[in-house]
Fold:
Amino acid sequence: MFYQLPESLQPEIDALEKLIVDFRSGTIDASTLKAHRVPFGIYEQRTNGIYMARVRCPGGMITPDQLTGVARLSDKYGNGEIHITTRQELQIHGLLVDRLIPLQRDLLKEGLSTRGGGGNTVRNVIVSPESGIDPDEVFDVSPHACALTTRLIADPGSWFLPRKFKIAFSCCARDSGYARFNDVGFIARIRDGVRGFRVYVAGGMGSKPEVGHLLEDFIPERQVFAVAEAVKRVFSRHGNRKNRHAARLRFLWRELGEERFRSLYQAEMAELQDCELPKSELEVQPVARVDAVPHIEPIAKGADCALWKSRFVAEQKQDGLFSVLIPVLFGNVSTSSIVALAEFLHRLGPDVVRLTIGQNLQLRNIPEQSLVGTFEVVRGLFELSTAARFLGDAIACTGADTCKLGICLPRGALQAVQERLRRSNLDLDRLAGCRLNLSGCPNSCGQHPLADLGFYGRAGRNNEVLYPEYNVVAGAVVGEHAPQFAEALGRVSARDLPEFVHELIVRFLSGQPRFESFRHYLQTEGKQDIRALCEQFRKIPDFEADQNYYYDWGAKAQFRLEGKGGGECAAGLLWIPEK
Ligand code: HEM
Ligand code: SF4
Structure:
């Protein structure tokens, strides 16, 4: 287990149970229940009366036993699938109201909870997926995320904030944990031989993204809790509780100005350290590892896994051990695949699997001689393991499928892109490491602001008829120093999006020797090509000439905006296109 549940959780579940009973008997209304269940990480899906629960897993850390446990709970109470989120959590979907409390109690037995999976709370703490195994990291920051989680979820103040509060850790300046794009971001560094962090605050994506600002140039690791708690208290005391559209920490930073924000923060720090030491110090336990890992015999000797290795396997900093990335389409995986995988992993120790920020699974601490055996298990369970890495790394939010704010259907579009590219015979391995991100609206759940190539949904209008369209962005720079959000470059209809991506890749590959990577291309000349392609695809046929343009990918009905808006995990924003 990677974090400790507080004793307060049991009575909180009891209280939620009472509210659900009251709701079912008509004593309280749906909105009263909602105010309590959303901070418990329980959302209503687009279908009324069907719920989703989001399980906290700091840094995507979960033991194989817990993974099996969650999968079995999805079978017992949900729809037999598990969803991996971009905040390294697990979601169980398709829950009826009478299953919500039994699920909570069973999760508790697994040492897991959904508390803080939604609402105005401290959300799941995310971590660079390669932390602990990366040869270039400063040090492993996963234990800090776990210890901080244990401390923060024990504090009732973490559940009543002005808005959601997101924390991230990166193990080096490449910032693969997106520390600069969270409310509080810690980036590992060592100063004078002392392990610690640079701390950034008030970053975030959303519809108005902002890069986090430097708060502390160096704090020793034992101060991680005090710093996070002090920022949380500033947010709690001074944040905007009246207008949730302007409530995230970045709005407070802007409103107060850096100087005032700092002085409030320093006052909270002083109080924490003067009055509450040693309580404010964080005790960090390294993640337990199993040293003698058993050898796993390949089932069929000599399976050819060289291509798979080049795509998905990386050497760890620990001699003789390897990590394996398992690409999971849209982060959705059947419980039977999870159970089979966990059964295989079980033999390898507790710290052998992580949920990644790319909605994939990462195996770690696999000995070299067990790689072929791993390959055989993985390729049988996860179809994208046989495709180029670029396809498996792509991210799309749920979009209008299940999200009331969704304008477009990004998963349908991504699937169409994947089909187009798989038909093409292009050398997609040259795109490895690049991020393709799609969001169904400007809210960034598909993380398009951090994309090498990204799209976010909007409604276009042609001769007064609405059609699904995407804004195109490209060239984000992720890293501690000089990060940049992807630049807006134009628009393309949903229908033409797959062809657009295909043509862009063709252009890159034909000029390839000049660019060290697809990323490099998109940060430079590629932007011009994108603008040119947007122009090329600008004109779409009228409705009478080709109705396909007016149906989104995977939609049965013609594109329209009615019924959108008012999503419950959201601020209820809606974007109507200009005429
Ligand atoms: C104001 C509206 C919203 C904003 C600003 C917003 C912002 C974000 C951002 C920035 C992320 C990326 C991960 C992160 O850094 O935390 C995210 C993820 C996510 N959001 Fe939203 N969101 C909004 C509304 C919604 C709604 C209405 C839904 C419900 C359908 C939703 C569901 C999700 C999910 C499920 C993820 C994880 C992505 C995944 O792995 O599936 N969000 N959101
Ligand atoms: S709010 Fe927008 S970006 Fe977020 S899940 Fe819904 S459609 Fe996707």
Summary: Residues 397-399, 403, 405-406, 439-441, 443-446, 567, 570 surround iron/sulfur cluster (ligand 2) (CB under 6 Å). The longest strand covers residues 453-462. The domain at 9-109 is CATH 3.90.480.20 (Sulfite Reductase Hemoprotein; domain 2).
